[in-house]
């Protein structure tokens, strides 16, 4: 196949689709399980450290401080927890990708695009609300 390196061509020619799929699933399971294990260890270590710094009951103390700060208004706490925090997390991470799509910078993000060279950078002249 033109444009492929010899190792990729040799890999695709020598294995059946089922073997490639099982190999990809094994690698994915290994990567995801390792990431989950490391994330769990990091969270547990940070929690243990915070428990020792605050002389125990870190999460209870943090919740009570937040509850007192909100003056016990459960509706405001619900709105912040169910709407504001997820929205800020979504737009915080995806805003970086949006800027990378529109400007083409930073290049360390744009080099991992699935369709290289297509919509690079994304055209901003199209409007979903145009009369075309």
UniProtKB/TrEMBL annotation:
<protein>
    <submittedName>
        <fullName>Uncharacterized protein</fullName>
    </submittedName>
</protein>
<feature type="transmembrane region" description="Helical">
    <location>
        <begin position="29"/>
        <end position="50"/>
    </location>
</feature>
<keyword id="KW-0812">Transmembrane</keyword>
<keyword id="KW-1133">Transmembrane helix</keyword>
<feature type="transmembrane region" description="Helical">
    <location>
        <begin position="75"/>
        <end position="100"/>
    </location>
</feature>
<keyword id="KW-0472">Membrane</keyword>
